[in-house]
Specification:
Strand 3, helix 14 (218-227) and strand 4 form a beta-alpha-beta unit. The chain is globular, with a radius of gyration of 29 Å. The protein is mostly helical and 452 residues long. The termini are far apart. The protein has 21 helices and five strands. 66% of the residues lie in helices and 5% in strands. The protein has a three-stranded mixed beta sheet with strand order 3-4-5. Strands 1-2 form a two-stranded antiparallel sheet. It has three domains: 3-132, MgtE N-terminal fold; 155-253, CBS-domain; 280-450, Orthogonal Bundle (Tetracycline Repressor, domain 2). Keywords: CBS domain, Cell membrane, Magnesium, Membrane, Metal-binding, Transmembrane, Transmembrane helix, Transport. It is a multi-pass membrane protein. Belongs to the SLC41A transporter family. One of its GO terms (molecular function) is magnesium ion transmembrane transporter activity. Homodimer.
Length: 452
């Protein structure tokens, strides 16, 4: 067992004993101090609420702040209730305004108001500015702690300004250039300033900025951020005045959260807002049960289709053997198309106006896939069960693959059009739709070919 693992086991044993005396708490603090930050985050995030609060309480200020910032906002809110008032005040005061706003969103109004009153006037003003934007707006994730320059500054003046105010800025690697009304004129990198002549003007060194409006959707802004390969992105208001800056760590956090949500919903569940091991059982059940009920109700449609064609199954029982193959193929083909188009939508490769092109493209893709699988189905099932059954299988696979590819490509675009999450329309609903529709196609072809 490694030293870190042994220390972790010691910390866990101390936590389970519910330490109360000063000696026990001091021992816990000494053991915890030797653990790396990642291990501390794991312990605080996965232990029961009481144990998490005890462990967090014995951490020194720097370690506590690092652990607290690594936790999801919902977990931060739950942790606060078990902490001392002064420790809470110190931590809240040291958070960045955007992180503080996310935390305040999760707290009861009375607690949030009390914490806001504990901030100094500048911190309170910056936090209030961030809280003024909708939850899904990029303004909610920007930092108002930005260090702007003016175009008339010389490089010498600009560098002196940066040295004086660097501690108050979120980042100094990319510096916005603004006019007296704070309208964004461009940006200049710190590297370029350092390499330029001291008498050169900032306005001559600045270049056009890739910026986002504070009300833009967070995911769209974050994807533009990475598409442009930025370290930081200025955020402006509707009149192009500088209001904040988005840094790479916040952009990464946004996309991580969006990808987590898409992954969960694609699998037919709602994303958990905290660590799996510390999430209450009933909360996990709630995240899954709604989807299971929706899908169970949707599956009734498939059962109804089988009931309609029950007489055909009675005449040719062999048809029942191929149902799992056909429904599985249709669902998989549709989900492949939906996943591809959903990602293309997310990164801006496909837009709503491209709907006809997507449909035409997926029709051809589905037809080629169907032709390959259909030929294989015709050959194998024809050799085993006869030419007639082989023909049914070949034509059905061709038709189902074509239909499923079109539906899979179409659903994310429809979701985007109506303002829903494209991931919600992916695997669960597409599979159910393709199952029912595929069976109708199957039995219709069987009826025509076999003369049922």
């Amino acid at each position: 067992m490694t030293t870190s693992s042994a220390t972790t086991e010691t910390v866990l044993a101390l936590l389970r004993s519910a330490p109360q005396s000063e000696e026990q708490l001091e021992q816990l603090a000494l053991e915890a101090k030797t653990l790396p930050p990642g291990e501390l985050v794991y312990l605080v995030e996965t232990r029961p609420a009481t144990e998490s609060a005890i462990l967090f309480r014995v951490l020194d200020k720097d370690a506590a702040l690092a652990v607290f910032e690594a936790l999801p906002a919902t977990h931060q809110a739950e942790l606060i209730s078990g902490l001392r008032t002064q420790q809470v005040a110190d931590i809240i005061g040291d958070l960045d305004p955007d992180d503080r706003a996310s935390l305040l969103d999760e707290l009861p109004a009375s607690v949030a108001e009390r914490l806001m009153h504990g901030l100094d006037l500048d911190e309170r003003a910056m936090t209030t500015a961030v809280l003024g934007y909708p939850r899904h707006a990029i303004g909610r994730y920007m930092s108002p702690e930005v260090l702007p320059l003016t175009p008339g500054m010389s490089v010498r003046e600009a560098l002196a300004h940066v040295r004086t105010h660097a501690e108050q800025a979120e980042t100094i690697y990319l510096l916005p250039v603004v006019d007296p009304s704070r309208v964004l004129l461009g940006v200049v990198g710190l590297r370029r300033l350092l390499l330029a002549e001291e008498e050169a003007l900032v306005g001559d060194l600045a270049h056009a900025a890739v910026a986002a409006e504070a009300t833009d959707d967070r995911e769209d802004a974050a994807r533009r951020f990475f598409a442009a390969e930025l370290l930081a992105m200025p955020i402006v208001d509707g009149e192009q005045r500088l209001v904040g800056i988005l840094t790479v760590d916040d952009a990464v956090a946004i996309l991580d959260r969006e990808n987590h949500e898409d992954s969960a919903r694609t699998s037919g569940t709602e994303p958990l807002d905290r660590a799996y091991l510390s999430t209450p059982i009933l909360r996990v059940v709630r995240s899954r049960i709604v989807w299971l009920l929706v899908l169970a109700i949707s599956a009734i449609l498939t059962v109804h289709v089988l009931e309609i064609f029950e007489d055909r199954l009675d005449q040719v029982v062999i048809l029942a053997l191929f149902i799992p193959l056909l429904t599985g193929t249709g669902g998989n083909t549709g989900n492949q198309a939906a996943t591809t188009v959903t990602r293309a939508l997310a990164v801006g490769e496909v837009r709503l106006r491209d709907l006809p092109r997507v449909v035409w493209r997926e029709l051809r893709i589905g037809a080629v896939l169907g032709a390959v699988l259909g030929s294989l189905g015709l050959l194998v099932s024809g050799l085993v069960y006869g030419l007639a059954i082989g023909t049914v299988m070949g034509l059905t696979l061709l038709s189902i693959c074509t239909m499923a590819a079109i539906v899979g490509g179409l659903m994310p675009l429809i979701a985007k059009k109506v303002g829903a999450d494209p991931a919600v329309f992916s695997n669960p609903f597409i599979s159910t739709f393709c199952d029912a529709t595929g069976l109708i196609i199957y039995f219709t072809i069987a009826t025509a070919v076999l003369g049922l």
